[in-house]
Design brief:
The chain has 98 residues and is α+β, with helices and mostly antiparallel strands. It has a single domain, classed as Beta-grasp domain (Ubiquitin-like (UB roll), Roll), CATH 3.10.20. The protein is 23% helix and 29% strand. It is built from three helices and five strands; from the N terminus they run E-E-H-H-E-E-E-H. A hairpin with a 2-residue loop joins strand 3 and strand 4.
Length: 98
C-alpha cells in the first residue's frame, strides 16, 4: 500500500516579493526534495542550498529533515550584517544613561 501524500508549503522571502508554493508530496519527503519539487530553485536561481539555511516555522533544520503534514519549509537569505556587530553599533550610538 502506498503512503499518503501530505500538504506542505515552501517559501522564500525577498524584500520586494515572496515565493510561496503549496504542494502535496509523498510522506517521507525531505526538505531538500520539497524545495526541488516546488520550483523555487528555478524561480530564483541565486539560491544555493549548500549555503542557504533552511527551517520549518522559524526553526533551523537540515536538508534531510523529513516533513510532516502542514509543515512550512522556509529557505533563509544570508545575513547582510553580523548581528553582534550591528547590536554594538546601535548600542554605541545611543546616549549614555545618567
Amino acid at each position: 500500500m502506498a503512503e499518503a501524500d501530505i500538504a506542505v508549503q515552501v517559501c522564500y522571502a525577498l524584500p520586494e516579493s515572496t515565493f510561496l508554493r503549496s504542494l502535496r508530496v509523498p510522506a517521507g519527503t525531505t526538505i531538500q526534495q520539497a524545495v526541488a519539487q516546488s520550483g523555487l530553485l528555478q524561480a530564483i536561481p541565486d539560491i544555493d542550498l549548500a549555503t542557504n539555511m533552511v527551517g520549518i516555522y522559524g526553526k533551523k533544520k537540515t536538508l534531510d529533515t523529513v516533513l510532516h503534514e502542514h509543515d512550512r519549509v522556509e529557505v533563509y537569505r544570508p545575513l547582510q550584517a553580523d548581528p553582534k556587530e550591528a547590536r554594538r553599533r546601535r548600542a554605541s550610538s545611543k546616549p549614555a544613561k545618567g
